[in-house]
Design a protein that fits this description.
340 residues, mainly alpha, Hypothetical protein af1432, 0% strand, flat
């Protein structure tokens, strides 16, 4: 079988089984720069592979989700969150007969621009830079500009649009993008609650009874309830939404998490230190841009110093940010030369 037959078979399967509201692979609006198509893979499959193998994706394993550098192997990181979102997005897309490959590619790329130290880092960079900072905008910048030494990944319009619009306030151009936006919210309120229970901040019984009555009393039950609700409210329609009672319960759980977890002393206890670290490094590189790595200095021909410094700082993992701060600002110990 010739390679191109595999892709044509995928196109035929999509034509037969996907919803009329799905974004079919053969209908992509294409890339910013034209490329020779792959004989075996659809364009959305190629995008998924490019994201998985990029440097920014690998760095997600050492970026905070909620708790800074937690002592334990089972806390959620930005990478495990991303995999959660991809799995839930695929489940929703499959239930609604949408394009799973497109949903997965968007999900895998949606948080590539996140800062070290989670949303605390995002707030800090936004306050420091006159350009502002939003992780969804930065995620698009990662795939468009920063990866491959300034060449970017040259992804399709649909994946780029889904990455940019994955926040609740966004307006994705495809239903697959809406699947990812929905999956992101489902994932983080559930696994962040699991982390809070693991950290001893909450117990499952602390969740208000009216929320538990609708969503269930465990992560498995909540995820099943929300995905089932999306299916019931959206199947056969040009929309991706939940039933009102389930959506209201999710919003109540989200508000509960902000009150009891995200803004708690335990979650934000180290934010002042992160503020000092990122502020000091921002000022350091802003005043001496020659100290930036060469790949970032190359960007200065086309972008402001403030933007490039934010690019560098947001690319750091938690522990690399600590390492770099120590390297720049903490004096090294002096050792006596025993031969003297």
């Amino acid at each position: 079988m010739e390679n191109r037959c595999l892709k044509e078979r995928t196109y035929a399967i999509e034509d037969m089984f996907l919803s009329p509201f799905a974004c079919k692979s053969a209908q992509t609006r294409g890339r910013l720069r034209e490329e020779e198509p792959c004989g075996m893979r659809t364009e959305f499959q190629r995008d998924r592979d490019r994201i998985i193998y990029c440097k920014a994706f690998r760095r997600l394993k050492n970026k905070t989700q909620v708790f800074f550098s937690p002592e334990g192997d089972h806390y959620i990181t930005r990478l495990t969150h991303t995999l959660d979102v991809a799995q839930i997005a695929r489940s929703i897309a499959r239930a609604l007969a949408l394009n799973e490959d497109l949903a997965e590619a968007i999900a895998l790329g949606h948080d590539l621009g996140h800062t070290p130290f989670g949303h605390s880092g995002e707030r800090i960079l936004s306050s420091l830079s006159p350009c502002g900072f939003e992780h969804n905008v930065q995620s698009l910048r990662v795939v468009d500009v920063l990866e491959k030494d300034g060449k970017g990944l040259n992804l399709t319009f649909e994946v780029r649009n889904g990455i940019l619009n994955h926040k609740k306030s966004g307006n994705p151009a495809t239903l697959e993008g809406r699947c990812v936006s929905m999956a992101d919210r489902i994932a983080y309120i559930n696994h962040d609650l699991d982390d809070a229970v693991r950290a001893g901040i909450l117990t499952e019984k602390d969740v208000p009874a009216d929320i538990r009555e609708v969503l269930g009393g465990s992560s498995r039950e909540r995820i099943n309830a929300t995905i089932t609700s999306v299916f019931k409210a959206s199947y056969g329609k040009n929309t991706v939404e939940m039933e009102s009672p389930v959506e209201n319960a999710c919003e109540k759980l989200r508000s509960f998490m902000f009150e009891r977890v995200y803004f708690s002393d335990s979650a934000r206890g180290e934010e002042e230190k992160a503020q000092r670290m990122l502020s000091a490094m921002y000022g350091y590189f802003l005043s001496d841009k020659d100290k930036l790595p060469q790949s970032f200095k190359n960007l200065l021909d086309n972008y402001t110093t403030e933007q490039v410094v934010c690019d560098y700082l947001s690319s750091m993992t938690d522990r690399y940010a600590v390492y770099m701060f120590n390297k720049i600002f903490v004096p090294k110990g002096w050792t006596l030369n025993e031969s003297d």
